[in-house]
Amino acid sequence: MRLALLAAAATGVQVGSALVASEAVVAEVGAGRLGFLRYGLALIFLLPFALRSIGPSVGKYDLLPIALIGIGQFGVLIALLNVAVLYSSSARVSLVFATLPVVTLAIGWARSGSGVTPRIFAAIICSVIGVAVLLAGDALSGRLAASDLIGLGCAALATLTAALCSNLYGPYLRRYGVVKVSVIAMAASLAPLGLLGMIEAHGTAVADWPAATFFLIGFIGLSSGIGYLMWLYALANAPAGIVTAFLALSPITAVAFSVIWLDMRASGALALALVLIIGGLAFTGIRSQPKPENRILPE
Question: Which domain of life does the UniProt lineage start with (predicted)?
């Protein structure tokens, strides 16, 4: 249990650090091209694990729906997040994305009436209030520009996409296992991401990229593959409600790295939002809860 929670915490840190790294290179690389490279590298890392996994092979009639969900989970989602950090800061984007658990639970309620314990619900609501404080505080202080609204809108759409795909994945994950389904879904997303990379206006020629850009792209891709495995291990060995709450570590990580490496100035609203999100995370981790049916997958 303790190792599973450490894996969940490490995944939260990975999500936040990958968003900061994406913010640093997305204008140079392009949103679609960065997504293609990210999940191309992650797929290379995960493929050996999928080939060695046990269980039934994926049925031919399930390949298309899994691929379509994968285009949403790994294609549309990551493209939206890359556009989000192109127009707004990774700190703000990660705070919006930290609402993924409550959005996923809301869709689950709408689809099947599945429930959640009051403790976990209260913790997630605390995170949502933190995001509201951030947006309201920055808007009142004049820190929220029109471009930020575009970025945060894309982050909200990315969160909704991830929540919807997480609910749709359920039967296929139970039937074939997470690694096999994820590899097929991830491979399917490469085609639309590659097409977006070819037609988008943002980005510079690969020959003009400095060494730091190649390093950051490698970090984003490999950390995504490693982070995904850690996330799956955590979900298999700890209650999903507690595991998903560790996504709250992503905005904490993003803010810390943005201040250190991107010279971002933390506002009072941002600080208060972080306190609320950390409080929600601590409140959730007080006691283990029963495991809900929906498994929430990170970006």
Answer: Bacteria
Q: Give the relative orientation of helices 211-237 and 2-29 as an angle to the nearest 10 degrees.
A: 150
Q: Name the pTM for this structure.
A: 0.79
Question: From CA 145, how far away is CA 256, in angstroms rounded?
Answer: 22
Q: Are 213 and 3 in contact (CB under 8 A)?
A: no
Spatial separation of the C-alpha atoms in residues 6 and 278, rounded to whole Å: 16
Eight-class DSSP state of 30: -
Concatenate the DSSP letters of all residues of 239-283 into one string: -HHHHHHGGGHHHHHHHHHHHHHS-PPPPHHHHHHHHHHHHHHHH
- DSSP calls for 59-86: PHHHHHHHHHHHIIIIIIHHHHHHHHHH
Query: Mind listing the pLDDT tens digit for each residue in 210-257?
Result: 999 999 999 999 999 998 888 878 877 776 666 767 777 787 788 788
- 130-163: string of b/e by CB count within 10 Å (b at 16+)? bbebbbebbeeeebbeeebeebbbbbbbbbbbbb
| For the chain, domain boundaries | 2-284
Residues 63-73 as b/e (b if ≥16 CB within 10 A, e otherwise) read: eeebeebbbbb
